[in-house]
């Protein structure tokens, strides 16, 4: 007899079971006989009466649906998917499930990457990768068809109405349409036309599930734009004023090529803003009148040192504000998701909480890989009260707890505790040695000596005979020392403990690679660079010494995912500009191309013979071209670094029209935005982190989030019974292992440790502690006005939203 | 009969009046007959008995001393002078007073400036200002003697013990000594030797009273140094690793001059950090192997985009922290100063507060320029309770209130209210017109049209015939419109109200200057530049339109003093480096000087004849030299801007030794520090300001601090009596004017408005409101443990610290 009925009355499709929940309800009015322990166990042990088998299986089916929908809600909460995209009926659910798994995501990603990588092969292609037009156009068509398939799945899942309303998807559809037509045109004409729209291919990548961080970055950039543009206008305004002024002041000087027309004046002041032409632009007028330097000093002081910093300040401020708002909305979104899930998991009979049975059902869908032990531990960790039910208040911590990795707390202190006495003493000695400060500082000294050694050795190598095949003996000596250290540490601490520290892992891999390099050298391969690169890396270990560096490096690792996503965002901008650049400027610069321009020297390539010697005069700048996508990327990076970018600009301009400058200027402004955001991000992250450290100075060392839970033998046995009833063999076997282990050591209970690394969200939670409470209150006030949630038992069913899957499926179908 | 006796028993030098306070005390035990009104008035009206005249004058003398000392305490609090430099006896007081007035400060400043400016005339001098060695050495000696005099006054005031303990003064003394000897040596030898110590002359300027802000900046810079250096080391560490790597990777390529030795490798990576040689340094290796760009991209990403931003983050964070700490210590210092002053102003009889009489006495010393009305208003503004005494709690607001400028609130709304009906209507019409949005936006449109006009006009001038003497008619048209606007506004609002707004003042002065320029042009003078500069300035008015710009500009004006002091700090660093640069590098670069170096082109000056045309090929970089102090400053500015700085460095290096690079690299690092601080400062100020605006969104528009106080006629009459008694004729006359005015309008009281602009300190007070209370509590706990202050009446005199002037003078003398 199933004693649980979902609170949200799920009318079955068949209609026959409509009375079942009511029957259940009647039956459940009986007093609850379960005493003390988690009722899931007792539930399971109560024999199922034969006559209500059909009802029971139907109720179970109901429950399965509820579990799945709750899991979907929780996933939406985690991924910040809006609830209006929640699958609305059974058909939609099937499509949703099809479109929400890693296989599908991977397909999405690889299609997008394939489309992006096609530009390596399309004309102007990288020479080695050039493909026939037929080949790459077919590939493109294939990829686009896959995208069509993906979109149709999405449409199935969202329904046409929602699909139309979803902006990003609509843009994607339009781009897809255009790309499709163009691909067919290329295939028909058998020649590439000017296809700037290729720059839009990025949208396929941006729309990928795995690129959520990139989407967030883009959103943040767009949100920071309004204040940025305001200050940019201020900047341009002063630039125009100074350009007019400069034109009046300096154009009478005919030896001054920088201010002879208003356009030149403007362009040169724009370049001056990047300081790229600095002393040069001043020199002709400075040579004539020393006081003209005042004009430039004032200009740079206002524009570069004041307004540009103002720009950073404004963006930083907006960024800060947005970060907080984003955190807030994410937090509240998660909370709402948890509320939705909670409503699907409580029963009519016991509306005050979720029992383990239902929680376990949820986790089966939410985290299929989780083993039975972990599910129970998660449940126990959530359950703050000592009742068998998880209340809504406890359930709010779901996201914090579900990420924990659980491990039985070791009874043994060292790995060698079980060894015979002599071995134990030896290993214990090594352990003490390895943990001693003397050993540590000796190693630091060795590393420092190694560093100095490398420096001196390199300094001595001025002659350049360093391509001799002999491995320097110092290399072998130091490598031996590092090897011995590695051995000692591994034996002293045990391999598991040794490798659990990030720094040790770093030491280990560097030493291992250096050793491999040496081996390869011995077998006469060419891993010379390999060794050279690896040797100084050891020196990085010295940075463990100082707290500030440790802090910096920790923060760096914490920031890494976010930094990578910012880098990817930058690359997406690069891609767009690279495509546009290639379409317009491919092949326009070449050696000696720009002899008529002011930057002719930089593009010169002269091969003249003086006496009997051939002297090559190379300007090299012709290498900074847009001839293929890789070259374009390098050129764009040079433009990002800004120094001497005007040489590239002028070179291209002299070969095309002077409207080309717009491309370069727009690129400068775009990278300025992205770079400012990156700076603001680093600034924000570090200042946040340091404030956090300052605020929590007295608290313990930062080891991530750790939780401890004890499980008694009876509990395990109870869960085994539960699983046995639902005939889950693997889970039962797993749990029985734990019981066996307990028996072996004669324990009545085992202590488990849940551990996960600290995320930015955890830090934010702690920083905004007080404000969060306000947000919650505000949020629940709003919620209450929409739907009575806190007291679901007293509310009539009809007023409860959202509707469950099947309820809606009835209205829709 | 003087009814007040200072609480702090001031033993007179003569000893005869030792009993006077006690007598006073006895007499004052009588019940106070004063009813209701401020007792100062009644005090004054009570007839002075003849027999206690001597006592009275002695008591008054006591009081004068107390007033003065209290004023000194308050000044010390305001200027953040430490109390251990408080004058300890009568002699010290005389010296203190001598050394603390604007005349002395001006002398200090002008001596320091003279010493600094001497470097314009000393070899290598600016050609026009060259002076004979005898002349400038004598001038220097003279200035140094003045400094000696200043120092001796300081020693007199501080006493030898404190003088020795005061670090800054000791450093100054040492520098003075060295400078003195060197000046004499120069005078004797009649030739300048290498005098790098001239760089130390800055200390005379830094030590000036007026340069307090510079001292604070320097302190802040030094306090930010430790974390800065940590990250700098990280930066240099990576630089060394990459230098070694680069050397191994690229030195086999013989056409690559950048990595052929380890030293070159290091120097070029240092320069690359500033991006100054960017694509060039990569080009030779990139030409050989395209993948070598990875080395440079990784290097720049780590060093430039990550660690450099980290540097900013760390400095910004430290800066934030220091700013808050500084604010706290300043606040507590002021509080202590107020406590000290308070203790000197309360009487034995009424220890619960300060009466107006004593407050007035204090203000006579603290702000001699303040008129009687303002003194009384300040007193009233301080007095929150309705008793005649200002309690300590009220007195704590002293600094906030004393800066207010008081003005009688106008009864008339407009300046033309008293005019006859017709005139009134006309002016009222103008007033309404001028205040209307239509008028405002019309003017904005005119300004915008003017802007576009100027742009188009300038664009049309490509030919260059813009030196015709005709004033363009558009100029006259627009100027007329602005003139009419100015007239309308002045008449409509009244000149006083018109000019009280900063923006109107700006409009007014720009229009006036433009008009003056036109006049000058009419009289055939050459103010062409003048007009050109002024015309686009009008466009700045457009920035009133948007709130963000108003915010930005307001903040800019608020920041201006601080920015100026930061600029001055930078200039001081420049001065030091300029002196060192001149001593070592004066005259080393000249046209065609560096033909053997890699930067020969930039220094080339060739005058060759091709056909019948003379072509001058100028590199101009020889102009960036250290030949005199002005040139050095320009060169250093170019080094600050960083672009192409290595050309200057390499030029100088090729003419001297390669150790010269150290000078340039150190300069780069120093400016990096100062610039980072400046950026951090701007960032901090703006973010602070924006947070403040966000926090106080609902509150009224920011008009500075405004306070309202009403004074009744009786009060004024009472004060007049008081002043009459002390025979202060000017004060009496002033006050009587107010009474007359009240009589004229038949009022019984006048409302006064106190106004001052909001300072950063006010903002901080509001931002840290809660924390400030904690600081105060903490501080008073500390204070209490040192001396019982809150209940001075219950404390015995002997336990009261600090001792008053004369008490100490007795112990000292």
UniProtKB/TrEMBL annotation, chains A, B:
> Per the record's keyword annotation, is Transcription regulation included, yes or no?
no
Q: Name one GO cellular component term.
A: early endosome membrane
The biological processes this protein is annotated with in GO are: endocytosis involved in viral entry into host cell
Catalytically driven reaction(s): Ca(2+)(in) = Ca(2+)(out); Na(+)(in) = Na(+)(out)
The protein's job, in short, is: Intracellular channel initially characterized as a non-selective Ca(2+)-permeable channel activated by NAADP (nicotinic acid adenine dinucleotide phosphate), it is also a voltage-gated highly-selective Na(+) channel activated directly by PI(3,5)P2 (phosphatidylinositol 3,5-bisphosphate) that senses pH changes and confers electrical excitability to organelles. Localizes to the early and recycling endosomes membranes where it plays a role in the uptake and processing of proteins and regulates organellar membrane excitability, membrane trafficking and pH homeostasis.
- Subunit notes for this chain? Dimer. Interacts with MTOR; the interaction is required for TPCN1 ATP sensitivity. Interacts with STX7, STX8 and STX12. Interacts with JPT2. Found in a complex with LSM12, TPCN1 and TPCN2.
Q: Where in the cell is it found?
A: Early endosome membrane; Lysosome membrane; Recycling endosome membrane
**PANTHER family in the record:** TWO PORE CALCIUM CHANNEL PROTEIN 1 (PTHR46474), TWO PORE CHANNEL PROTEIN 1 (PTHR46474:SF1)
Q: List where Polar residues composition bias occurs.
A: 793-813
Q: Which domain of life is it from?
A: Eukaryota
In this chain, the stretch annotated as Disordered covers 9-36, 777-813
GO molecular function terms attached to this record: calcium channel activity; identical protein binding; intracellularly phosphatidylinositol-3,5-bisphosphate-gated monatomic cation channel activity; ligand-gated sodium channel activity; voltage-gated channel activity; voltage-gated sodium channel activity
Q: Which family does it belong to?
A: Belongs to the calcium channel alpha-1 subunit (TC 1.A.1.11) family. Two pore calcium channel subfamily.
Q: Which residues form the Ion transport domain?
A: 107-326, 437-687
SUPFAM superfamilies linked to this entry: Voltage-gated potassium channels (SSF81324)
Q: What is its main location?
A: membrane
Taxonomy, top ranks, is:
Eukaryota, Metazoa, Chordata, Craniata, Vertebrata
Keywords in alphabetical order: Calcium, Calcium channel, Calcium transport, Coiled coil, Endosome, Ion channel, Ion transport, Lysosome, Membrane, Repeat, Transmembrane, Transmembrane helix, Transport, Voltage-gated channel
**Family annotation (InterPro entries):** Ion_trans_dom, TPC1_animal, Volt_channel_dom_sf
UniProt membrane topology term? Multi-pass membrane protein
Alphabetical list of Pfam families matching this protein: Ion_trans (PF00520)
Please give the name of this protein. Voltage-dependent calcium channel protein TPC1
The protein's organism comes out as Podiceps cristatus
């Amino acid at each position: 007899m199933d004693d649980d009925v979902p609170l949200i009355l799920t009318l079955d499709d068949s209609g026959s079971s409509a009375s079942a929940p009511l029957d259940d309800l009647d039956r459940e009015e009986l007093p609850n006989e379960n005493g003390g322990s988690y009722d899931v166990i007792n539930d399971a042990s109560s024999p199922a009466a034969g006559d209500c088998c059909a009802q029971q299986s139907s109720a179970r089916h109901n429950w399965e649906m509820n579990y799945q929908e709750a899991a979907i809600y929780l996933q939406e909460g985690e991924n910040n998917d809006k609830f209006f995209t929640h699958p609305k009926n059974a058909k939609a659910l099937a499509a949703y499930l099809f479109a929400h798994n890693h296989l599908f995501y991977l397909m999405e990603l690889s299609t997008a990457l394939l489309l992006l990588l096609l530009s390596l092969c399309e004309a102007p292609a990288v020479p080695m990768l050039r493909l026939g037009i037929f080949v790459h156009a077919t590939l493109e068509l294939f990829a686009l068809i896959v995208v069509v398939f993906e979109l149709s799945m999405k449409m199935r899942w969202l329904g046409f109405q929602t699909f139309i309303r979803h902006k990003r998807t609509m843009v994607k559809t339009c781009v897809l349409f255009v790309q499709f037509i163009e691909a067919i045109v290329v295939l028909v004409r058998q020649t590439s036309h000017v296809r700037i729209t290729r720059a839009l291919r990025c949208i396929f990548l941006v729309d990928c599930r795995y690129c959520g961080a990139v989407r967030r970055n883009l959103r943040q950039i767009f949100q920071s734009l309004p204040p940025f543009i305001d200050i940019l206008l201020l900047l341009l305004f002063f630039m125009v004023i100074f350009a007019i002024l400069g034109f009046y002041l300096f154009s009478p000087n005919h030896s001054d090529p920088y201010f002879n027309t208003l356009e030149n004046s403007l362009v040169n002041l724009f370049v001056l803003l990047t300081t790229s032409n600095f002393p040069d632009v001043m020199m002709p007028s400075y040579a004539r009148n020393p006081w003209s330097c005042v004009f430039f000093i004032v200009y740079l002081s206002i524009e570069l040192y004041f307004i540009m910093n103002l720009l950073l300040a404004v963006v930083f401020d907006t960024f800060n504000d947005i970060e907080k708002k984003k955190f807030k909305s994410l937090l509240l979104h998660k909370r709402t998701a948890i509320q939705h899930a909670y409503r699907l998991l409580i029963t009519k009979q016991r509306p005050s909480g979720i029992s383990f049975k239902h929680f376990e059902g949820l986790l089966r869908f939410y985290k299929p890989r989780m083993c039975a032990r972990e599910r129970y531990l998660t449940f126990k960790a959530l359950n703050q009260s000592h009742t068998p039910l998880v209340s809504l208040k406890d359930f709010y911590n779901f996201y914090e707890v579900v990420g924990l990795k659980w491990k039985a707390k070791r009874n043994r202190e060292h790995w060698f505790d079980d060894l015979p006495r002599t071995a134990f003493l030896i290993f214990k000695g090594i352990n003490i040695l390895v943990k001693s400060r003397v050993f540590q500082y000796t190693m630091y000294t060795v590393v420092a000596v190694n560093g100095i050694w490398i420096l001196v050795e390199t300094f001595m190598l001025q002659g350049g005979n360093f391509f001799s095949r002999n491995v320097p003996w110092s290399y072998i000596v130091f490598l031996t020392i590092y090897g011995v250290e590695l051995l000692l540490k591994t034996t002293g601490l045990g391999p598991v403990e040794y490798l659990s520290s990030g720094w040790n892992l770093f030491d280990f891999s560097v030493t291992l690679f250096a050793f491999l390099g040496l081996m390869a050298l011995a077998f006469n391969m060419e891993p010379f660079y390999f060794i050279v690169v690896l040797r100084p890396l050891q020196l990085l270990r010295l940075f463990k010494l100082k707290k500030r560096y440790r802090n910096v490096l920790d923060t760096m690792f914490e920031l890494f995912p976010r930094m990578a996503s910012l880098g990817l965002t930058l690359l997406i901008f690069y891609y767009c500009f690279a495509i546009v650049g290639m379409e317009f400027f491919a092949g326009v610069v070449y050696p000696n191309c720009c002899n008529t321009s002011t930057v002719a020297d930089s593009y010169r390539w002269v091969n003249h013979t003086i006496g009997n010697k051939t002297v090559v005069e190379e300007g090299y700048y012709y290498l900074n071209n847009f001839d293929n996508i890789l070259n374009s990327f390098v050129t764009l990076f040079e433009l990002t670094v800004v120094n001497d970018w005007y040489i590239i600009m002028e070179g291209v301009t002299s070969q095309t029209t002077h409207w080309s400058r717009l491309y370069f200027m727009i690129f400068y402004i775009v990278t300025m935005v992205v770079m400012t955001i990156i700076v603001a991000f680093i600034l924000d992250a570090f200042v946040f982190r340091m404030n956090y450290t300052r605020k929590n100075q007295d608290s313990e060392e930062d080891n991530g989030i750790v939780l401890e839970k004890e499980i008694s033998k009876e509990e395990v046995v109870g869960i085994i019974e539960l699983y046995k009833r639902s005939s889950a063999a693997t889970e039962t076997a797993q749990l029985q292992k734990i019981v066996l282990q307990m028996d072996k050591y004669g324990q009545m209970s085992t202590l488990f440790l849940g551990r996960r690394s600290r995320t930015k969200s955890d830090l934010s939670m702690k920083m905004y502690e007080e404000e969060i409470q306000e947000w919650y209150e505000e949020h629940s006030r709003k919620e209450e006005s929409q739907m009575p949630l806190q007291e679901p038992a007293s509310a009539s069913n009809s007023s409860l939203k959202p509707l469950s899957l099947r309820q809606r499926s009835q209205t829709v179908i």
